[in-house]
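Submission checklist for the structure archive. All mandatory fields must be present; incomplete records are returned to the submitter.

[x] Identifier: Methyltransferase domain-containing protein
[x] Organism: Mytilinidion resinicola
[x] Residue count: 383
[x] Sequence attached
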Amino acid sequence: MGPSPPPFSSSEYWDTRFHSNPSAFDWLQPASILDPHITAALRDTSEATTPNILHIGCGTSLLSYHLRAHVDEPSQIHNVDFSKEAIDLGKRREAEIFQEPNGEGEGNHEGQKSAENVDSSGSTSVPDEVQNGISSSNGINEQNGTIGQNDTNGQNDTKTRKGSKGYNSTKSPNDTKPTPSNPSLARPTPSPTHMRWTTVDLLSLPSLLSACSPGSYTLIVEKSCSDAIACAEDIPVSPPYPLSIRPASVPSLSASSSSPPAQLPPPPPSPPSAPSSPCYYIHPLTLLAVHLAALATPHARWICLSYSSARFPFLPASTDAESAVPRELLEQGFPDPAALWRLERREAVETAGEGEAGKEVHRPRVVHWVYVLERSEVEVVRR
């Protein structure tokens, strides 16, 4: 009998792993692999909306820092992981990479970073792909997916949105800046200079709602987080589940997105439950899809890099789609993830072969997959 696979669904496993090896690590592909899809998703964001990005299962991936090239304010990015060790490492690494020359925090210019190296022993190097992605306040380069950056002729052919790179505000900086003739003008409140970092269990609704505002994220990104969650055992669910698809007369979760995460609409009165509710088991990714749907805005994108060609059991193309949620559980109000998400795109990404220069490498073809899911307009409500 072969060795057991690592317990990828255990937070203790990841805490131990990140503690023993705190160096930055990216699963499957470099952080820039998702750039074209992130750019397209942000371009589709409403002009009146400031995009908020939820990076799930951030671990020690460089994607967290790479995402800063896609937005105007670091606070638009929310990195979550159920390993506290990973979150603590991420906070420290961000503070070390994006610091003023005086070492007191981030400077006014987004590309201003410490020249010192910070690695697992206390010194950090700024990786090339992060350096390239954040070195210009105009966004990332055309190769990786331009975001509001002028071309060589000075023409901007990329649509931009409020809060994403390249958005030009009409507000003059002198509107709020005090001057000798107008000393009474209040100074603007400085924007948060760092991303948000939170330890969260994505499969625990109380944990998720204590950290994330419902209906507030326009983009969800991940690199192999769903792969790790898929390693978990099926999740027991007893009806009535706290989330359901919204009836027309009940306020949606997104209506309270401007309030603190825990301040959700009070649930309508429920009929008395049966003495003993049956328990059903569902795939962990089915539960994840329902939870993320509660956090996402209509038409939000969920971009996932995975090693699996059939990662999500609730998608129509999946052979498991019929059994993703037991019919009896759906009849008792559990949200159908197939009604909440649709597959917009699935793209194969072949890994680059390695070998000696000038020599052909004969090895099996290794392919990873990028999934782009779009959130439907079906709303989710708390019971």
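[x] Structure attached
Curator remark: Residues 11-146+190-232+246-269+284-321+336-353+366-382 form a domain with the Rossmann fold fold (CATH 3.40.50.150). DSSP finds ten helices and eleven strands in the chain.
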